[in-house]
Amino acid sequence: MANNKLKTLFSMSFIVSLLIILLIPSSLGSLHSEISFSIGGTISSYPTVNINVDPNKKTSKNNLSLGFQLDFERWKLFVDRPAQRQLAQNVGFKLIRVFDFRKTTPRLMPCTYWDEATQTGTWDWTQVDALTQAIFSVGAEPLFCLGWAYYAGEVHRFIPDGMAINPNTQLPYSESYAAYAIEWVKHFRELDWPVRYYEILNEPFAYFGWNPQDTTKLSYYVDLWNTVARSMRQENPNILLSQDAITMKTVFDYWLQHGDNVDFLDFHKYDSVSIEEYTDAQLFDLAERNRFETTTSFYGVDHVQQEWFNSRGAWLPLINSESNLNVAADDGTDPRIQQMSGAVWTALVLRGGIMKGLSYNVYFEFSSSKSWELNNRQSGGLGFGMTNTDDNQPWYPYYVHQMIGTNLHVGDPIVEATSSSSEVRVLAWINQENLIILVICKTDESRVLNINGVEETLNFFKIDNTISYETPSIQEGTIEPPNTLIMEGYTVLLLRAPLH
């Protein structure tokens, strides 16, 4: 009986509310944009955001493919666990970056000892080959980053055991390191494996300084890079080489004068360096601008691509080869990395990468352990991973990659799409005869979303704060015309409709 009374009251309330709306004078038409029905039929007065899409107006084509890093012992888990590889395959990742220098057990470094006198090494390729095969098995290819130029005065930790350091430069001797790098190229050529991408010494700015005014150390590094690159290319001219500080202003200007050709323009993008440094809103702003646009220390990607073409006559691919919301790790990682704010940040970066014409965006990193991080970090962060190695379950950033990666291919036409609010970003493209609309809500307050320009039923896939970040999932459903729904705070939403 009580249930029947509640149903009667609800029905009467709904009818009265509907009559009120119908009786609103036309002179109050401006108020209508603030009133909408959600999917469930309840009335909402949340602010409305209008998304306008025109699938007939193509603006550009997509170049972007997705990637991730395997660091520390996670590369071994990727080899040993079919579940980890299946997660990667489910997204369609195309590039997987790996270091050769971590002191893991077993160590990935194939050179077990280097004889400086003869410039030859003792080699065991077992682990490298197993990882390379695992990468190929998920439809991706590796990017091998060889060595680290300098870290707290201990460069010997990041090169083969036994390799000597030049006391004048505090780097390996160029000819010796070239001999080491040649063996990588030779090994894969002999196996007839299509390993193409290499970086020579990770984050070299740790050696020569942040946008250095004194270019002495920069000149040492460029000389080493040139020597190593020439030797590797002589072994196989089809490989692709670069280094990840090329968009730094001093480095780029110096490189155009003294450096050999790189094959792709390579950079890293971390938008904060300490956990309490920025608010969510500030991080979202940096997601869209940092490294994409010119700053005091770095050229934007448009600038370096155009200037390289002007100087060297080649239009080079752009690769963000290492990226996350926050680089801080010593006292714990930023908890927002795996939460919805981290998912929004990730989606904004990928949207920016598509709009800027990037070829790859590499997320640092694929997995991390929740239990290990909670026992060993003060802040309670969960590492940098997009998946949890404890149970092979994804966190929110993984689902951002999955929604985009399974609905975006190189060459897909980007079509005109606009948002009436700066709080909500949109990007639309055509994929396999489907219209795809990516919507990113940057505010943690509810908004009514109207999709204009699409008459068909929309299938939606979304993540938001209505499900805990500790056990997230993609929510799926359909939206019937007039294609209106409520976004409850931070949201990454992908809409799909067939084209006729």
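the 2nd protein, sequnce then structure:
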Amino acid sequence: MKLLSLNLFFFLLETQICFGQWYQQNSGTTATLTEIHFENSLEGWAVGDSGIILNTIDFGSNWSTQTSGTANPLYCVYFTDVNMGWAVGDYGTILNTSNGGTTWTSQTSGTSTFLASVYFTDENTGWAVGGNGTVLETSNGGTNWYSQTCGTSNHLESVYFTDVNTGWVVGYSGTILKTSDGGTFWNSQTIGTYYRLTSVYFADDNTGWAVGEL
């Protein structure tokens, strides 16, 4: 099971740039929420404990519960458009929707370890990462997931691609891995820290950030 050391809130917050303030929104749940993804200014999803998936179509003014079909904790949700999305979580859980979450279906991951992060460059090509150095890749929207060899057994926390070839993964013990061929080969990058890294983001192929814990 994935161990979380972050301070997670039981409610959702939103900010308006023009005022620089945060306002509490009513999520309608007391479950811990671990990840949020907005596809545009109005439509977004949040996932968390007990397989909960929430959706809003009005900037978060109202949140509704979607039926995930699982009680496993979910750690990440990602959409390529307002219809096509994936959520991943404990025990190798991968869920997919093609209608904005009206229905979610389970996909076979081939692993029983936790999956912490999922990222797609288009509706077909994506990656999921998680425990014990797990890196999974699909080229058909998740109908089939295949394991990639990444060269580490450290838990992996986050994955991000700038295109179908170039991507990064971060995780425990200061792990940063990079690929230039869609994950056929992953190369370790030296950063000089052994702290756990929990998230990675790149603005382009050269400029990126990784964050974690002390």
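The first strand starts at residue 12 and ends at 16. The CA atoms of residues 174 and 194 lie 4 Å apart.
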